[in-house]
Each structure stands twice: as structure tokens, then as C-alpha cells.
């Protein structure tokens, strides 16, 4: 689905592609920094202690989430500057791309990169012989990973929209909500392999975020109805 | 393979010439000089463009005259509009370059991942005489540095040789050299590549079929690159050639040497293009003095050039050969400063005065593209291919390097739009790529692996 989003909405306009790749880049840098911190922490600690390792992992995850959001904010700042530049340079005084579109594309960029990093090694291994969960792990590993990745990509997209909107209108509670949601979803993934605990709430959260982002982008129930009725 | 490599030393010139970025228009404007105010140059360029495109039809000429009168009036407005159009078209050009670079990288990575041959170590080029099989780390490091020095000095020698050839107008020699090396590339390397791919997938092919296939491929390639051909086909051939060359590099350069060479090449590129005494810069200036289009070869152009009515050197210009690396470097340089500025000017002039004119003008302007040297393609692909081949983090590292290179390319193009002169395309991208490769491989990979094993998501 993420690729579908990409093809249908982003691939047309070159500016969007650039913003997408830059978004992915920012996510990557945040990942880099957070793994650097984690790596240092691990090296500095005792490798034998299981609980400590687990604790460090949790710490690493949380820190990474915070860093991701921080980088989203930085990216927002950069895009603001870029938009001002584009407006100043454009012929008719309005920029060729609106901040909301940028928010959307940035979200997709973040999401794609995080999804790619989560899934791609799995996919490569999936091409090998079929031995899922042979050591007593869950049989549904691949399936749940796929769903989890998809929900995460969508969530990043919506968070992007919400976050930028919050920054635009200086509503700090929106930004805080995004951060908390992100932390929640990551935290929920700790429930794995108890999949009910992690997948279901994540999807619920995603639906909520989707509705919120839709409303923020100017949609309404009426629009939705009109859209659906026109089609059929 | 080893003996072949040893004999064909002419083929193995590293593509340092190719590592430059320039934009569009091939023939430099005679009246263009740095001192001239931009508008004049733009006007002259616009006129010349119309003349060059006159083979397209009478509309063009009429348009040229009209816009000629319109241009002086509009110049003040044009100055302001210049910048914005630069940026608008900038995005499009960036994408026009993203696509071929991505394609090349995809081809290289796909081959590396599937065909065993390119990751086996079967010997080294004579340009990297020091082996890396030594037991101690220090010795290995020393050997790789020495390898790099040898390689870079070979590149420098070839570049200077080419500049001299160009200076003394030995055009026939250069053309012959280019044609010979592209011939070898197209036929021999394709044969080897095809053989390995068929071996991997266990597909049998008899010799006559092979002969016919390779003959057709090579012949069409030669025609497309050195003469005329559909733009897409030519671009496809250039991409394939770059991929083949990159694969050869990945196979035959020893590990540490490859990384050190990548770093050294980007530094060399930076110096050769920007220093006043650099060979590439000298080549550009020489070509500028003579008002000739830069050399044939080794340039990937993302748009059609209106060289239908132009002299031969232009049409031969799209060739791609290893030997012409040095030539290409020089070629690049020339194209960079005059043509980039010209194209910037002309692009921005183009829309403004020609709005009342014909759609043909716009067509001309849209077709103008950015040029990227083939050496850039090759080294980007070498970086990503090496990441795919040797990184234990597999796809994550490859993906990270890919994004890093694309961002570097973006930044370079942005700088190009700001500085309006030829710029080396390698340094920024390769630096980013190297940083990301090493950091992803060592730092991110354990993190992601641990996360994946616990199925945690960040």
C-alpha cells in the first residue's frame, strides 16, 4: 500500500519526490544517531546481564522514538524555509506546493524508510527455505511483521500531517499527542509475540490518527459521502 | 580474465572525467564571457539557440526574431524570474537525473546479489598491484593506500595526456580512442556479463545465438552512442555501460583499496574541477576559447540536444567509453562553465520572452536537461554495489547508501543552481555514501537486528 501511495500521489511531481527522499534521509539520520547511542550504551554495559540488555533495548527504542520526532521537527523547520524560498521565487506569489502536501510527503518519506528498514531483511530471508518459527517462536512472524510494518508506515504518514499542522498553528498539544502516540505504538510492540496486544491497538490508533488527519486536512463527513456517492 | 585485463590497460581508465555535473546546451556561446552581464549572454544564447534549432522549422525563426525584439525590453523582469525558473526546472532536472542513477544502481545491485561471479576474487588489475592478503592490519592498510596512489596517478597521467591531445587538436586520435574503447566495452564485457548471467540461471545458449545477440546489441550501441539514435535508447545504453564498468570495478578492486580509492577520487574530482590549474578546468577553458562543443563522450545527457544540424563532434559527443575518461573529464569541464551558465540563462530567458511565441520554443526549453558525467554513475554504482556485496547488513546498508547518494546528488544540483558553473558531482555524494555505509554497517545493523529478533518497532 505504501508503494501504491507513492506511485499515485508522489511520483508525478518531482518536487514531491525530492521531499520524500529528503524525509527518508532525515529518518535515516535519526536512526543512525539513536543506534549510536544504543551501541555505546551496550558496549559500556555488561553483555551477560539479560535484564540489563532488555532494559537497554527498551531505552534505545524510546530514545529512538524521541529522536525521530525531533528530526521530524527539524525537517519541518527546513521545509518552512524552503517554502518561503519557493514563494519568494514563484511567479504568482504562491508556492507550487503547500505545507500540507509537504507534510503528507514528509510523512510518507519517514514511513517508507522506517518500513523498508523493518521489512527488507525479512523479505530477503523469506526468499530462503521456509522455516518460520522453528524454535518455538510464533508461526505468524512474517504475517504480523508485514501488518505491523504497514500500520507503522501509515501512522508515520498521518503523524507527519498532524505534526506539521500542530507546528503551523502552534498547538503544542497536537505535537505532544503525536509523540505520545508514537511512544505508545512502540511500547505496544513490546507485547510481541502476544500479537493481540500490539496489532489491535495499533490499528485502532491508526484509525484515530487517520480520522484526525483527514479532518485537519479539510475533509469532512460530507466530503466523504460525496466522494463515495460520486463513485458509485 | 587476468591476462585480458592486463592487456587491455587502455580500458581500465577510471572515469574521472565523467565526474562532473553540468547542464545542457552543448555549443558554447561565442559571445559568452564571464564579464558580460547575464542578460546579454542570455540574449545571445537565446538567439543562438534558435539558430541551432532552425532545422525544426520556420516557426522557430519567426519566434527567434520576435523574441529577439522582446528580449531587451524584458530584461529587467527576466533577472528576477531567472532565479525562480531555475528552481522550478531544478526540481525536474533533479528527477531526470535521479532516474538513471537509480536504474544503474538497481542493475548493479541486482547483478551483485544474484551472480556469484562478481563477488569472487579472481585477481586484480595491474593498476592495483599491491595485494591485500597480508596478515597484519597495518600492512593491509599500507597496501591499499599504495594501490590508491597508483590508481590516482594513472588517472592524473591520462587526464593530462588527454588535455594535451585536446590542446594540440589531435581530434582524430581522441575519437579513435573513444570508439575503440566503447567497442571493447560493448562487446567484450557484455559477452562476459551475459555468460555469467546465463551460468547463474543455468540457461543454455548456443554460440550462434549468442553471437547474433551480442552483435546486435553492440552494433546498435555503437551507433546510438557515437552517432544518432533515440534519446531513450542512448540513455539506456549509457546506463548499461556504466553498470558494466562498475561491476568490473567491484570485482577487481580489493576491499579496502576500493573504499580508499572512492574517497581519493572524490577529493581528486574536487580539486581537478575547482582549482585553476586543474586539468579539467584547463580543458574547459581551452574549449571555451575555441568555441567548440566539449568533447564527445562520457556524458549522460538527460535531454535531447539540438545538434542535428551541427558538426560531427557534437553528435559524437554522447559516446561513452572508458578511455575517454580523461577526455570526458576535460569535456565535462568545458560543458560545465559555459553551457551551464548558458542553459541557465537560456532556460530562464526561454520561457519569459517566448511566451507569446510558439510552443516549439517551450519544447526546446523543456528538452534542455542536465548533464552528468558517466564516471559519476560508475562510482555511485561502485559504492552501492560494494555495499551490497560486502556488507553483512545486506539490504539496510545498501538502502542507506542509496538514499545518501541521492541526497548528495540533490545537494550538488542545488549548488549548481546557486553557483552556475560546473561542479564536481562526486564529493558530496560519495562522502555521504561512505559515512552512511560505515555507520550503518557498524552501528545500525546490530540495533536493527536486535529489534527484529524481538520484533520491536521504532
- Report the count of strand segments of chain B: 4
Q: Helix/strand/pairing class of chain B, anyone?
A: mainly alpha
Instruction: Give the count of structural domains of chain A.
Output: 1
Rough outline of chain B = globular
Identify the biggest protein-protein contact and residues per side: A-B, 50 and 38 residues
Helix content of chain B: over 70%
Major pleated sheet of chain B: 4 strands, antiparallel
Low-confidence stretches of chain B: 1-76, 304-367
Structure in words:
The complex is a heterodimer of chains A (232) and B (458). By secondary structure, chain A is mainly alpha-helical. Chain A has one domain (1-219). Chain A has helices at 2-10, 14-43, 50-89, 99-126, 141-168, 172-188, 195-216, 221-231. Chain B has a domain at 90-300. Chain B has 16 helices and 4 strands. A 4-stranded antiparallel β-sheet of chain B has the order 2-3-1-4. Chain B starts with a helix and ends with a helix. Residues 1-76 and 304-367 of chain B have low confidence and may be disordered. Chain B: Keywords: Endoplasmic reticulum, Golgi apparatus, Hydrolase, Membrane, Notch signaling pathway, Protease, Transmembrane, Transmembrane helix.
Structural features:
heterodimer; A: 232 residues; mainly alpha; B: 458 residues; 4-stranded antiparallel β-sheet; 16 helices; 4 strands; 3% strand; globular; disordered N terminus
Describe the structure in brief.
The complex is a heterodimer of chains A (232) and B (458). With 232 residues, chain A is mainly α.
Topology readout:
The complex is a heterodimer of chains A (232) and B (458).
Chain A: H1 2-10, H2 14-43, H3 50-89, H4 99-126, H5 141-168, H6 172-188, H7 195-216, H8 221-231
Helix pairs in contact in A: 1-4, 2-3, 2-4, 3-4, 3-6, 4-5, 5-6, 5-7
Chain B: H1 2-7, E1 20-23, H2 38-52, H3 58-114, H4 137-167, H5 171-201, H6 207-226, H7 231-252, H8 255-274, H9 279-290, E2 299-301, H10 312-316, H11 325-349, H12 351-354, H13 359-367, E3 370-373, H14 374-390, H15 395-419, E4 423-424, H16 426-454
Antiparallel strand pairs in B: 1-3, 1-4, 2-3
Helix pairs in contact in B: 2-3, 2-11, 3-7, 3-11, 3-14, 3-15, 4-8, 4-9, 4-11, 5-6, 7-14, 8-14, 8-16, 9-11, 14-15, 14-16, 15-16
Amino acid at each position: 500500500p505504501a508503494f501504491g501511495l507513492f506511485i499515485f500521489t508522489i511520483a508525478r511531481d518531482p518536487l514531491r519526490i525530492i521531499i520524500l527522499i529528503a524525509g527518508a534521509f532525515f529518518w535515516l539520520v535519526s536512526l543512525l544517531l539513536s543506534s549510536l547511542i544504543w551501541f555505546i550504551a551496550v558496549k559500556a554495559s555488561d553483555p551477560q546481564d539479560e535484564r540489563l540488555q532488555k532494559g537497554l533495548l527498551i531505552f534505545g527504542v524510546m530514545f529512538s522514538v524521541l529522536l525521530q520526532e525531533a528530526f521530524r521537527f527539524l525537517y519541518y523547520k527546513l521545509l518552512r524555509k524552503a517554502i518561503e524560498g519557493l514563494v519568494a521565487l514563484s511567479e504568482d506569489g504562491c508556492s507550487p506546493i503547500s505545507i500540507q502536501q509537504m507534510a503528507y510527503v514528509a510523512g510518507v518519506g519517514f514511513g517508507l524508510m522506517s518500513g523498508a528498514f523493518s521489512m527488507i531483511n525479512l523479505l530477503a530471508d523469506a526468499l530462503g527455505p521456509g522455516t518460520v518459527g522453528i524454535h518455538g517462536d510464533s508461526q505468524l512472524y512474517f504475517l504480523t511483521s508485514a501488518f505491523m510494518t504497514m500500520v507503522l508506515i501509515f501512522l508515520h504518514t498521518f503523524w507527519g500531517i498532524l505534526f506539521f499542522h500542530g507546528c503551523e498553528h502552534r498547538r503544542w498539544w497536537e505535537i505532544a499527542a503525536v509523540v505520545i502516540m508514537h511512544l505508545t505504538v512502540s511500547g505496544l510492540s513490546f507485547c510481541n509475540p502476544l500479537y493481540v496486544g500490539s496489532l489491535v491497538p495499533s490499528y485502532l490508533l491508526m484509525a484515530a490518527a487517520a480520522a484526525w488527519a483527514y479532518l485537519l486536512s479539510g475533509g469532512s463527513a460530507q466530503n466523504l459521502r460525496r466522494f463515495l456517492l460520486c463513485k458509485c | 580474465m587476468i591476462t585480458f585485463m592486463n592487456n587491455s590497460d587502455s580500458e581500465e581508465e577510471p572515469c574521472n572525467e565523467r565526474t562532473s555535473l553540468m547542464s545542457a546546451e552543448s555549443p558554447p556561446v561565442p559571445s559568452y564571457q564571464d564579464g558580460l552581464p547575464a542578460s546579454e549572454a542570455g540574449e545571445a544564447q537565446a538567439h543562438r539557440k534558435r539558430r541551432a534549432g532552425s532545422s525544426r522549422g520556420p516557426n522557430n525563426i519567426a519566434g527567434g526574431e520576435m523574441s529577439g525584439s522582446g528580449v531587451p525590453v524584458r530584461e529587467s523582469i527576466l533577472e528576477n524570474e531567472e532565479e525562480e525558473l531555475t528552481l522550478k526546472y531544478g526540481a525536474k532536472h533533479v528527477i531526470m537525473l535521479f532516474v538513471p542513477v537509480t536504474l544503474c544502481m538497481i542493475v548493479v545491485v541486482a547483478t551483485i546479489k544474484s551472480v556469484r561471479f562478481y563477488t569472487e576474487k579472481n585477481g586484480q588489475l595491474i593498476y592495483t598491484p599491491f595485494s591485500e592478503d597480508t596478515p597484519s592490519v597495518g600492512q593491509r592498510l599500507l597496501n591499499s593506500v599504495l594501490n590508491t596512489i597508483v590508481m590516482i596517478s594513472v588517472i592524473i597521467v591520462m587526464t593530462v595526456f588527454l588535455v594535451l591531445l585536446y590542446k594540440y587538436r589531435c581530434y582524430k586520435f581522441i575519437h579513435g580512442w573513444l570508439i575503440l574503447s566503447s567497442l571493447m566495452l560493448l562487446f567484450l564485457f557484455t559477452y562476459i556479463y551475459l555468460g555469467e548471467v546465463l551460468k547463474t540461471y543455468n540457461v543454455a545458449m548456443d554460440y550462434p545465438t549468442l553471437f547474433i545477440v551480442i552483435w546486435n546489441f553492440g552494433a546498435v550501441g555503437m551507433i546510438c552512442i557515437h552517432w544518432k539514435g533515440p534519446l531513450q535508447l542512448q540513455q539506456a545504453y549509457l546506463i548499461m555501460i556504466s553498470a558494466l564498468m562498475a561491476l568490473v570495478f567491484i570485482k577487481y578492486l580489493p576491499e579496502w583499496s576500493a573504499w580508499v580509492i572512492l574517497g581519493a577520487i572524490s577529493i581528486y574530482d574536487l580539486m581537478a574541477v575547482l582549482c585553476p590549474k586543474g586539468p579539467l578546468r584547463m580543458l574547459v577553458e581551452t574549449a571555451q576559447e575555441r568555441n567548440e562543443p566539449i568533447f564527445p563522450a562520457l556524458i549522460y545527457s538527460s535531454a535531447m540536444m539540438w545538434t542535428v544540424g551541427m558538426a560531427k563532434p557534437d553528435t559524437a559527443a554522447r559516446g561513452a567509453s572508458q578511455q575517454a575518461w580523461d577526455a570526458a573529464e576535460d569535456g565535462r569541464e568545458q560543458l560545465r562553465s559555459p553551457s551551464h551558465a548558458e542553459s541557465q540563462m537560456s532556460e530562464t530567458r526561454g520561457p519569459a520572452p517566448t511566451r507569446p511565441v510558439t510552443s516549439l520554443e517551450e519544447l526546446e526549453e523543456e528538452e534542455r536537461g542536465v548533464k552528468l558525467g558517466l564516471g559519476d554513475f560508475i562510482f555511485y554504482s561502485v559504492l552501492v554495489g560494494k555495499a551490497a556485496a560486502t556488507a553483512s547488513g545486506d539490504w539496510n546498508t545498501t538502502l542507506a547508501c542509496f538514499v545518501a547518494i541521492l541526497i548528495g546528488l540533490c545537494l550538488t544540483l542545488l549548488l549548481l543552481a546557486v553557483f552556475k558553473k560546473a561542479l564536481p558531482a562526486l564529493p558530496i555524494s560519495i562522502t555521504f555514501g561512505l559515512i552512511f555505509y560505515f555507520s550503518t554497517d557498524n552501528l545500525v545493523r546490530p540495533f536493527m537486528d536486535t529489534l527484529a529478533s524481538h520484533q520491536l518497532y521504532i
